[in-house]
Design a protein that fits this description.
By secondary structure, the chain is of the alpha/beta class. It is built from 9 helices and 8 strands. Helices cover 40% and strands 17% of the residues.
Length: 307
């Protein structure tokens, strides 16, 4: 990564019109318009559908193995975004991992507060299993709130007695809705995208009267024993740095295979800027390698059992 690349990205985000804690109706439009300004590559195909009654968007690129599935969870602080808004980054992950991506259009707050997002994630995963896709051929990936949702879903499916996916990868996870990590203050001056006050407002939309330390809302407080191998990526220039570090530490404490990758000088979900930042490109390659390694290690015996 060159300093020019990093500075160009930081400047873009500092001058972006999105205010994560602003009027929700306005910010939803801004969030969508910002993403729509960068069209999907021509070789990316998308098709709507449903899993377990939950809307989903299947995202495919050429030369993938459709038997390998990434269940993808978009960001947006549980109140913004959609499966379609997350399709660009989802496609990039799927292309590199050689997998079909199913992006989950989970319900948003405040119209559908906690635990609606977790319920939708579990329902979609359960339906994918019921269709005959082995858990060993499925990987979870999520960004921002979707990263926190990935971790929460791992805990929820464990409680439901469902098998874990082959792996889970999270980009800049929002995993502590108490917004109590030290980086919420320490990184406030360098984070160009998020504010603690904005996250607290969206957390209130999502949680209502629910305790923000509830494990399925804030998985940094959850028992992660027995969940899937976990890759956590985060930039050092974001107020959610401690969410990522604490989530990884919690996983390690509970004997989970976990890798934490901190990229210095980079902001929230920097992986979405792989076309302009070398380290974002490298981070996506690392995520794809993690996904493929665990699917390869797991899927052959799982498929043999079905035969």
């Amino acid at each position: 990564m060159t300093l020019d690349q990093r500075q160009a990205l930081l400047d873009i985000l500092r001058h972006a019109p999105l205010d994560i804690g602003g009027d929700l109706g306005e910010q939803r439009v801004i969030f969508h318009d910002m993403i729509a300004a960068v069209p999907l590559p021509e070789d990316v195909s998308t098709s709507p559908g449903e899993l377990g009654g939950v809307p989903v968007l299947t995202v495919e690129t050429p030369h993938i193995d459709p038997s390998t599935v990434i269940l993808y969870f978009h960001g947006g602080a549980y109140a913004l975004g959609s499966a379609a808004d997350g399709a660009g980054l989802a496609a990039d992950v799927g292309r590199r991992a050689g997998a079909r991506v199913i992006s989950v259009d989970y319900r948003l707050a405040p119209e559908s507060p906690y635990p609606a997002a977790v319920d939708d994630a579990v329902a979609a995963y359960r339906a994918l299993l019921d269709q005959g896709t082995p858990s060993a051929a499925i990987a979870f990936v999520g960004e921002s709130a979707g990263g926190g949702l990935v971790a929460a879903t791992l805990v929820a499916i464990k409680a439901a007695g469902l098998p874990q996916p082959s792996s889970a990868t999270v980009f800049s996870p929002w995993a502590d809705l108490t917004v109590s990590g030290g980086s919420a203050t320490a990184k406030a001056d360098v984070d160009p995208a998020l504010t603690a006050a904005g996250l607290r407002r969206r957390a209130l939309d999502y949680l209502g009267d629910t305790d923000p330390a509830t494990p399925l809302a804030s998985p940094v407080f959850a028992d992660l024993t027995g969940v899937a191998p976990l890759l956590v990526q985060v930039g050092s220039y974001e107020i959610l740095l401690d969410d990522a570090v604490r989530l990884a530490a919690r996983a390690a404490e509970h004997d989970v295979e976990v890798r934490l990758q901190v990229s210095p000088g980079l902001p929230h979900v920097f992986q979405g800027f792989a076309a302009m930042v070398d380290e974002a490109d490298a981070a996506l390659d690392a995520a794809a390698a993690f996904i493929k390694a665990h699917v390869r290690a797991e899927v052959a015996p799982a498929l043999a059992e079905r035969a």
